[in-house]
Amino acid sequence: MKRIVIILCLWLLQNVWAQPPKVLVVNAHPDDESGCAATIYKITHELGGVVDLVVITNGEAGYKYSLLAENIYKQPLTREAIGRKYLPRIRKKELRAGCNWVGIRDIIHFNQLDTHYTLDADTVLTAVWDVENIRKKLIKRIQKEQYDYLFCLLPTEETHGHHKAATILALETVQMLPQNRPIVLGVSVSGKEDTLIKTFKGLEKYTITSLRKNPTSSFQVDRTTSFGYKNRLNYQIVVNWLIAEHKSQGTMQTYMNQGDFENFWYFDLNTPERKKKTADFFDKLSRATLVK
Ligand SMILES: [Zn+2]
Question: 77 CA to middle of ligand 1, Å?
């Protein structure tokens, strides 16, 4: 009898009394959130969780892709000076609209410069962004909200230097916290046939990005999980809703329906014992449905 009561209490703790998850997403650009849009949707709509988003730049360097949006916003946005002037406001509006579809609560803009495309994270961290200010604001936000998880983009060698820099800053900030650190996970998107990403072990120069202890411990959310009438719906639909709002970024729409899995990589910075908690969280997420 005593054993049954204990099991029941443990079940209630995990399923009924458990606090819904709180997640902070830290990205360099408005639209980077599309990489984990299905997961965000599931957290907010199926687990009743809270997701907030920090965006470090306003994405004004995306003016090169704004040709189709010139008619929408009645501005010659592909002219660099015009694009850099108007895109910060436009992209904030597009981002808010996209985030509404997936249930993101707060969007916090750090308003740093989006200079140009580069693979080099060093220059971004030493000469472009006000990193001290970013760290200070991030610490304040994390300590105030006590997030369970922090999602950032997986900083592979071939990804944008701004993505790498945003992830490095997020990891460094979490490392500075004396206690109540969120679990930091690196996000990547892959297709069902894709295996290339599995070779990433962390950036040589930034050991804080190491995944050497956890090279295969990726957790996944399958966007193609089907549900609804005749099982004709899936989570790619929701991802497409979000992407469609980023109209000033023409190339975003070519990614629609691409990517079957949202992968979450467990950085070595997280202590090994919290991997079980993370596995339980993704297990719960995969079993969660929209059915009330
Ligand atoms: Zn980006």
Answer: 19
Q: How many domains does the chain have?
A: 1
Ligand 1 centroid vs 106 CA: distance in angstroms?
Answer: 19
Residue 15 lies in a domain: no
Which tens digit of pLDDT belongs to each residue from 221-255? 999 999 999 999 999 999 999 999 999 998 888 87
Name residues whose C-beta falls within 8 Å of residue 250's C-beta, 6 or more positions apart in sequence. 65, 66, 67, 68, 69
Residue 16 lies in a domain: no
CA 4–ligand 1 middle distance (angstroms) = 50
Asked if residue 11 belongs to a domain, the reply is no
56 CA to centre of ligand 1 in angstroms: 10
Query: In this structure, what CATH number is given to the domain that contains residue 117?
Result: 3.40.50.10320
Centroid of ligand 1 to alpha carbon of 59 (angstroms): 8
Identify the three-state secondary structure at position 115.
coil
Which range of residues forms the domain containing residue 40? 22-194+201-287
DSSP assignment of 164-189? HHHHHHHHHHHHH-SS-PPEEEEEEE
How does pLDDT run across 158-172, given as a tens digit for each residue? 999 999 999 999 999
Residue 230 within a domain = yes
